[in-house]
Amino acid sequence: MLYIGSHTVKELAKSRETRVTIVDNFCGGDFDSISVLQKLFEVGKFEFVLLDLSEFKKLEELFRESHFDAIIHFAAHLQVGESVQNPLKYYRNNTMNTINLIDMALKYGVNYFIFSSSAAVYGEPIEIPISETHPKKPINPYGLSKWMSEQILQDATNSNPNFKYVALRYFNVAGASSDGSLGESHTPETHLIPLIAQSALGKRQSIVVFGDDYDTFDGSCIRDYIHIEDLALAHIKALEYLANNNPSDSFNCGYGHGYSVFEVIEMVKKISGVDFKVNIAPRREGDPAQLVANNHKIVTQMGWKPHYDDLEKICKSAWEWEKL
C-alpha cells in the first residue's frame, strides 16, 4: 500500500462520498503516510487496520463486520532479484495472499477488484512497445506470481458473473506527489530514481548500474517511467470502468516510450547539479533489456489522460521528496 496505494487513496479523497479502509502490515515502509491521508477525510470515512493478508481469520472478521464495494489490491513483494533467490516468499505473499483476498470478495459480495499487476508478466519482450496481447512468459518468480494472480482472477470471474476485475500492469512507477506530501519510501529502497536521488544527496556513496552491455543504444536497460500521480488516476479510472458495467480486463500503465538507466542518471545530475559517482556491476538475474508499454488500450477504453509525461518532471518531484 505504502507508495502507490497512498497516492491512490489521496486521489480517492477528492470525492467526499468515498469511505476508505486501508489494510497493511507495513513490512516494507514507515507509518507516516497514514497520518497524511487521515487528514484528507471526514471523520468516520477513513480507517486503518494493521493486518497481514495471511491472517485469514482476522481478515474474514474484517469483511464480516464491514461492507465494501470495491477492493484495490496493492500489497506484494516486488524485488525481481530477491524473487529469483527466494521464490516461495513471492508465491506465498503475492499469489496465495491474493487468493485469500479474492476468496473474501466472493464470499462477502465485493464485486469490483482492482489488481496491481506488472509488466513483468510479459518477460523478455518480442515487440516494443508491448501490447496487452503480447505473450505472457515471465522470466522471474515475481512476474510469474503476478501472472498467476491474473489467471486466478479470470477464473473467479468465470465462476461468478457478478465479480469483475481490472488488472493494471504497471511499468516503472516513479516520482512523488506534486504538493510534496507523499513520496516513495521503501525499506530497503530498490527503485532506480530514488536511489539516484539519494546518491546525489550524499546519502549513498554511489549509484550502481546493473549491466552496461544490453542490446540498447547505450548498453543500459530501458524502462517506461510513469509518474505516480498519473498511475493513481489510472486506479480511479479503473473503478469507474467497472462501475459502468464494462467487462473484466487487463491494461498497461505506461507512457509508451522509455529512457535508459544512463539517461535517468544524467537527468538527476542536471536537476541536482551534483556529479555523483556511478559504478557498473554485472546484470541482475531476470532483468529484460527493454520494457515499454503500448498504452493505447487504457487511453481509449478508460479515457485515461496522463499529466506528467516528462522525465524531468518525474525526476524533479522525486528529488524534491528526497531532500525533505
> Could you say what the CATH architecture is?
3-Layer(aba) Sandwich
CATH superfamily: NAD(P)-binding Rossmann-like Domain
Quote the average pLDDT.
Answer: 94
Strand content: 15-25%
Q: How many runs of DSSP E, i.e. beta strands?
A: 13
Query: What CATH first level would be assigned?
Result: Alpha Beta
Globally, the shape reads globular
User: Which runs of at least 5 residues are low in confidence (pLDDT < 50)?
Assistant: none
Strands of the biggest beta sheet: in what spatial order? 3-4-5-10
Describe the fold and architecture.
- The protein has 324 residues and is of the alpha/beta class.
- It has one domain (4-323): NAD(P)-binding Rossmann-like Domain (Rossmann fold, 3-Layer(aba) Sandwich), CATH 3.40.50.720.
- It is built from eleven helices and 13 strands.
- It has helices at residues 4-12, 32-38, 56-65, 80-85, 87-107, 141-159, 192-200, 228-243, 261-272, 296-302, 311-323, and strands spanning 20-24, 46-50, 70-73, 112-118, 164-170, 172-174, 207-210, 222-223, 225-227, 249-253, 259-260, 278-281, 290-291.
- The strands form five sheets. The chain has a four-stranded parallel sheet with strand order 3-4-5-10, sandwiched between helices. It has a three-stranded mixed sheet with strand order 11-8-13. Strands 1-2 form a two-stranded parallel ribbon.
- The radius of gyration is 19 Å and the shape is globular.
- The two termini are 21 Å apart.
- The model has no long low-confidence stretch (mean pLDDT 94).
